[in-house]
Amino acid sequence: MTGVLGCIKRDGRRPAVHTAGIDASGQDGAMSTTGGMASGPTTEPLDAKALRAKYQQERDKRLRPDGNDQYIEVTGEFSRYLDDPYVERVEREPLFDEVTVAFVGGGFAGLVTGAKLKEAGVDDVRIIEKGGDFGGTWYWNRYPGAMCDTAAMIYLPLLEETGHMPTQKYTMAPEILAHSQRIAKQYGLYDDACLSTEVTELAWDGESSRWLIRTNRGDEMRAKYVALGTGPLHRPKLPGIPGIERFRGHTFHTSRWDYDYTGGDPAGAPMDKLAGKRVGVVGTGATSVQCIPKLAEACGELYVFQRTPSSIDVRNNHAIDPAWFRTLEPGWQQEWLMNFTTLQTGGFADDDLVKDGWTDIAQRIRDRVMAETAKGEELGPDTILRAFQDSDDEKMAEIRARVAEVVNDPATADALKPWYRQLCKRPCFHDEYLDAYNTPGTYLVDTDGKGVEAITETGVVVDGKLYELDCLIYASGVEVGTSFARRAGFETVGRDGETLSDHWSEGMRSLHGIHVRGFPNLFVVGPNQGANLISNIPHNLTEAGRTIATIVAHAEASGVDEVEVTEDAEREWVDLLQSGGGMSIFGNPECTPGYYNNEGQPMTKEAVLNMAGYPAGPVAYFQYIDKWRTSGDFAGLEFRASQASG
Ligand code: NDP
């Protein structure tokens, strides 16, 4: 199923060649060819052995000894990259009150947990959010072309509860932000929300069995329960490029898009202020893939600085038919969620309801396994691994063929071909990205895996050539693999002064990824140490929200002061996580470096634990947690009166 669905070749365009640069010394440079494809164009088909060698060669040249430390933390002189460009700060009086549940983070984690708490009859819920509105990642990421790669029918939470019909199979970011606001309104979460407010400290007070929450607004609130939904991927990072602080042109990170500078808006109005401007983008991950087509339309000249090409699979978006949507039976969303998760993680189902790039690879693997089994071959790990590899090789060959088919200039096309297994990096799905390189004035500057060499006052240096720019946009991603406290922006201090950083100094320890020993009445909301389903993060969050709401409602109904995981239950859960499996796509050392494999560095015990998932996989986890929750036993948790009073 290869092809150029949705891609229109615009004949007569100037092919995207690498532009004339200026030597860093200031001399005019020669026309640069596709940056350092030293091994030359690679013609497929390669046999499996040659393909493995090519993958390894491409991986090896990208390995860096500094791994994840190569990135610059956005603090100090760089902290302006975090400023909220979307709202004016409104002053307010500090709060010194108490609520039943405080939730840190107004993204999907806070929204679904808040909604489930309200449904469970827990009304007194306050969401504290550093952005100026709900939406989390969809509040911050308003870059042009922003949309979701996971089908809206399963990605958007609470569709049945809100009655919202997604307009398209894959929704654009403004619709997702509006859906976040819809949930917040419907469940009354705006009523007591503290927006544009950053938590600075969270500490357990054992005397009163309450959490004390301090914020950058001078608040000193108290809460009986606190939940943390601070987001796995939300703190922007900058590339560690020498001279990055020297650039005198305009710069911003994609998660804080500066429409005042570019013109246009998130709804798609053209970025008319970029006409005649020379714009550079560092990075070619999922974000860059979505905004490049819009920038290509708008910029005078666009230079895309690439270290590793993304894999760009077919997207094939389409409108959702309201008549069809109305035929769905109650309970449909849960059915779709489980169907997607089952198929995407290698299980069997009669229908593929979502039918997208995520389920496609799994389908191919299943077909191969079935064919081998039909031949009488025993279904051992070798058969499955071979099916996995063959399916992946086939898929990646199609992805590379698609590049060659769409991109006019052969050198540019060659540089855009990914040489790694599809799940080594976040797969991308787009039908206009590759074609953007056929737009006059759009140039791919490939760095042959080395990354940008330097940044000067006036531009970006690659291979000794200076690309002069008016504006430099960092599509360099978000922190992954740094400490929880650093990403959250505050420390959490539990019983006896132990911090979450102390407790997790050798890796995350929890029950279900939610409860942590020594941190009573605290809930962590995220995919890790639970289902760890990365293809549809909201599914993890909705399940966690349900679980937390059930526990809080039970604790409140029982009149207890504290709920905490036992030491044994936490240890046993961590032992289970370490017992094998559950790490299917993370930590593969053969992969090209990226955040899925700790930038190619050995996976420390800490990194393994931080990214661990239920060994039997996401479907088994969702079934397990549903039983655990509905049994009413809450095995592993202690419900008790205040330790101070007891
Ligand atoms: P990524 O981390 O995926 O990409 C960062 C990019 O910056 C990479 O291409 C990286 O290259 C490049 N880079 C880093 N340092 C340098 C350097 N020194 N020189 C040149 N290039 C450099 O960030 P994104 O913001 O694109 O995506 C982050 C995550 O957000 C995604 O993985 C995805 O999970 C999520 N997302 C989800 C979307 C959705 O549809 N739901 C849409 C967009 C993002 P290299 O690859 O070599 O490291």
Keywords summarizing the entry:
disordered N terminus; 23 strands; 20 helices; binds NADPH dihydro-nicotinamide-adenine-dinucleotide phosphate; 646 residues; FAD/NAD(P)-binding domain; globular; alpha/beta; 31% helix; 5-stranded antiparallel sheet; 7-stranded mixed sheet
Question: Can you characterise this structure?
Answer:
The protein has 646 residues and is α/β, with parallel strands linked by helices. Among the domains are: 18-82 and 238-315 and 427-474, FAD/NAD(P)-binding domain; 98-134 and 189-235 and 480-640, FAD/NAD(P)-binding domain. It contains 20 helices and 23 strands. The strands form six sheets. Strands 4, 5, 6, 7, 8, 20 and 21 form a seven-stranded mixed β-sheet that branches. A five-stranded antiparallel β-sheet has the order 2-1-18-17-16, with no helix packed on it. Strands 10-19-11-12-15 form a five-stranded parallel β-sheet, covered by helices on one side. Helix 2 runs parallel beside helix 17 (537-558) and helix 17 packs parallel to helix 20 (618-631). The longest helix is centred in the middle third of the chain and has 26 residues, at 381-406. It is globular, with a radius of gyration of 25 Å. 47% of the residues are buried. The structure holds NADPH dihydro-nicotinamide-adenine-dinucleotide phosphate.
Oligomeric composition of the shown chains: single chain
Q: Estimate the global geometry from the Cα principal axes.
A: globular
Q: Structural class, judged by helices and strands? A: alpha/beta
CA radius of gyration: 25 Å
How would you name the CATH homologous superfamily of the domain at 98-134 and 189-235 and 480-640? FAD/NAD(P)-binding domain
Strand content: 15-25%
| The CATH class of the domain at 98-134 and 189-235 and 480-640 | Alpha Beta
Arithmetic mean pLDDT? 90
Bound molecules: NADPH dihydro-nicotinamide-adenine-dinucleotide phosphate
What name is given to the CATH topology of the domain at 98-134 and 189-235 and 480-640?
A: FAD/NAD(P)-binding domain
Examine the secondary-structure arrangement and name the CATH architecture of the domain at 98-134 and 189-235 and 480-640.
3-Layer(bba) Sandwich
List segments where confidence is low: pLDDT < 50 over at least 5 consecutive residues: 1-41
